[in-house]
Amino acid sequence: MIQVNYCGYNYYNTDFDIIDRPKGSGDYLLLYFLTPMNVLINNKLVKAQAKSFLLYTPNYRQWYQAVKRFGNSFVHFNGGERFIKELSIPLNQIFYIENTSKIQEYFRWIENEFINKTIFHEYQQDANMRGILIEIARNLRSSDTCLVRNTRRQEFEKIRYKILGNLGHNWTAEEMAALAHMSTSQFYAIYQEEFNQTPKASLIEARMEYAKYLLRNNSLKINQIAKMIGYQNEYHFIRHFKKQFGTTPGQYRKSF
Known about the structure:
Elements: E1 3-13, E2 18-21, E3 28-33, E4 37-41, E5 44-48, E6 52-56, E7 62-66, E8 70-78, H1 81-87, E9 94-96, H2 101-116, H3 121-141, H4 151-164, H5 173-179, H6 184-195, H7 199-217, H8 222-228, H9 234-245, H10 249-254
Antiparallel strand pairs: 1-8, 2-7, 3-6, 3-8, 4-5, 4-7, 6-9
Helix pairs in contact: 2-3, 5-6
């Protein structure tokens, strides 16, 4: 049986408030953030948007702070370990689902039972907890509404931003993989899964688009542009440009 230890529905703390439990709360904690939060996960700060969820396991460090307003619905509970595992709900990471209204209703029902403790409330709470967890799992499994954005995705977005924000750097596959502390093959596989293209393809695409901009908007020489976007060899740049757009950089410039 799942037992509710404490809960709150649409509960607001003071602005910028911080929750910090270095050793966790000793029980499961299901959170629904009504407002943006900064959350510490695996010793890294993650931005959780409003309408995001987090299910902490017992003894996992709980640290989160409101970006400004602090609003959440939450429930501390024990039990249901096997049930949670069967549902495959993400643990100790931020996740998102589209349809949250029914889940919020469950939070309200759970709080009502917790406060009033009417006859057979223990059984009703067990049913409520299983209901809210099933509702979350169903939404996560729905291909139409699944908006899971876990910490891996967020980390890879940061890495992608760093790479594509430094087009003049001579990036190697090993150097890009090192940003994620992974082997090259593992990094390439996950990157392609997240962005539907390899890191190299992303880099070339971004370089070519920037080259087009430079060719249209200034009088830099072709070899200067090549160096600005990370090519040591002008002819290597020209080959990539022609492959991408079907014309050479010089011909492209003349068309404007």
